[in-house]
Amino acid sequence: MPIPLTLRVLVLLGTVMLSISCSLQTKQDKSAFTENHVALELKVPSTFRFVAFGDTRFHDPSDTEPANPAIRHALVTAIDKENPAFISIGGDIVYTGDDAKDWKVWDSETAIWREHKIPIYPAIGNHDLKGDLQSALGNYFARFPEIRQSRFYSVRMGNTLLLVLDSALNEVSGPQGEWLNAQLDHLSGSTDFVFLIFHHPPYTSSSDDKTYGGGHAARASEQALAGDLEERQQRMRARIVVFNGHVHNYERHEHGGITYFVTGGGGAHAYPIVRRADDLYKDPGVNYHYLLAHVDHNRLTVTMHKVELKDGKEIWSEPDSVTIDAPAALPVAAD
After folding, report:
1. What is the CATH number of the domain that holds 249?
2. What is the model's pTM?
3. Do the beta carbons of residue 101 and residue 60 sit within 8 Å?
């Protein structure tokens, strides 16, 4: 018996609506998982080391107001000698993002890293976006072609996953927030550590009152992100470790099973800060430094390497170090 015209119209409409729905879903999935995102992989042995630091502010070395060029040079040279698997810079790479001259200083002063083929995985800081946005981003991406104009991206390294965020974008919703949730929802079972790199810290002893001429309080957006991460950590075997900059000093905080490092002593003029009770590092003074992270299977040791210049001589010390273990399995919840 032939199908009535009305029924055929309804079937056709239903097919069209299903097609539109599937198309929209595919577009949404693409936005959530792949938009503006690149997934890199770095081959490393089961034991490897990397460097994390930030707030270098590469700039005309004759202008010593924005940064300390002698300290910056000492840090670049010392980091190169560590021969790390990679270097992570947590933002404010240059003083003014749209200034081509600042980026040429970066090119010149870090040439030794490229000569020795050390991968560099940067996060965007507020100074990297300073000036004309398109020019600033153009300068930034020209130096890091492997991230293919991704403002947030991932790097898989053995039993670890590096997630680099742009704290100028929404970190808990929108494309970046959706991508971050997808990354954490689909962790490989072999992942022991998840490293997050972004510029603005969720926890800091610093404040906006600028008691010592500088400082930044934590923002609500990063505090919300920290709350989400800490809730997740209770359900994850892999340990989350966060590296931030923005505050020109060193701090270490632990909340909800997560260790948070503020490592903004890369050359931008450092300033003292009044330490909060939950800041596990107590030296209130100036702390130019880099962090050396040593991954040994399911054990991570992060050591602060501090440099001071006295009578033109470099004085190095290691005033803070912490070891973080990833458990073999989550503890069984009590009934």
Report:
1. 3.60.21.10
2. 0.88
3. yes
